[in-house]
Amino acid sequence: MSAIDELYQEMIIEHNRNPRNFRTIDDATHTAEGFNPICGDHFHVYLTVDAEGRIEDIAFEGKGCAISKASASMMTQILKGKTETEARELFDQFHKLATGELDPDQQGKDLGKLAVFSGVSKFPARVKCAVLSWHTMSSALDHVKVISTE
Fold first, then answer.
1. What is the pLDDT of residue 108?
2. DSSP string, 76-117
3. Would you state the pLDDT for residue 55?
4. What does R_g of the chain's alpha carbons equal in angstroms?
5. pLDDT per residue over 97-117, tens digit each?
6. CATH of domain 3-22+31-141
7. How distant, in Å, are the alpha carbons of 29, 46, 50, 111, 117 from that of 94?
8. How far apart are CA 64 and CA 67, in angstroms?
9. DSSP codes of every residue in 36-75
10. Which residues of the chain have pLDDT under 50?
């Protein structure tokens, strides 16, 4: 097993067992609900965005597989403090990484620890798990209340 595969497994397990920002935000300015009907993953994403378009707070709740929960957890960590534009750019890069369109060594904007998800592209059925929370976050920013990966 390669070092990246081992790191991937460790991070997925850790974020699944102890998800960061796993809660609601009662006064969220943006919310959306996302479904993956194939596997049953179902999340709500909450954001508080200030007048300048900066994400002051971000959280999620719901149920899903280890990959989807870990991705949501790590997403909330990296997006807190970012602008809406930066969040959309990171979503685009993460999506390309997860689908195998972006070489993890050429991340462009710093995806940081999210690079461990580069291995998801080897398992097409799992890509939707990894990107569900990201699509949900993007929909929340667009004021779209419900999205589905189908």
1. 47
2. HHHHTT-BHHHHHHHHHHHHHHHTT-S-TT--SS--GGGGGG
3. 98
4. 14
5. 999 897 655 654 568 888 888
6. 3.90.1010.10
7. 24, 19, 24, 7, 8
8. 8
9. ETTTTEEEEEEEEE-TTSBEEEEEEEEE--HHHHHHHHHH
10. 108
